[in-house]
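>> received
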Amino acid sequence: MFKITKILCPTDFSSPSLYALCFASDLAAQFDANLFVIYVVPTIPLSSTPPPFTAAGIPGSIDLNAYRNTLIADAQKNLEEIIKTNLPSCLNVTPIIEYGDPAERILHIAESLDVDLIVIATHGRTGWRHLIFGSVAEKIIRLATKPVLTLRKPETRSQ
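>> returned
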């Protein structure tokens, strides 16, 4: 029988990912599993033109380490708030903040924690949006060695 003791649920703080998080929390409660919620801060793209803002009084420069640390701190605060407001306090939930390529870091954490299941939302992008933005969920489905449950948030129809 398939035993679920560890669930990994990536989030990007979007509505579809919160839907998947609530689904993952229900599974965790049903199986008395540990729930790991991960947010990956994407790497800062480098540009050939200097940024139009300054750091340390030098025109056109930025302290990338300080900027990355700010992004990570903000992500940690947002992740803790989402967990606090969307998940029952009786669950064993571990927040994880990573930095890098989202699909790569999620797959690495899934392997290192030896999770039993990855629960991830798909935004359902098609056409040029899919071509431009790619799909973290698609990469995870293709490359994961662990079972992956993908969820698409049902669309609400206005009447």
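>> Strands lie at 6-10, 34-41, 93-99, 117-121, 148-151.
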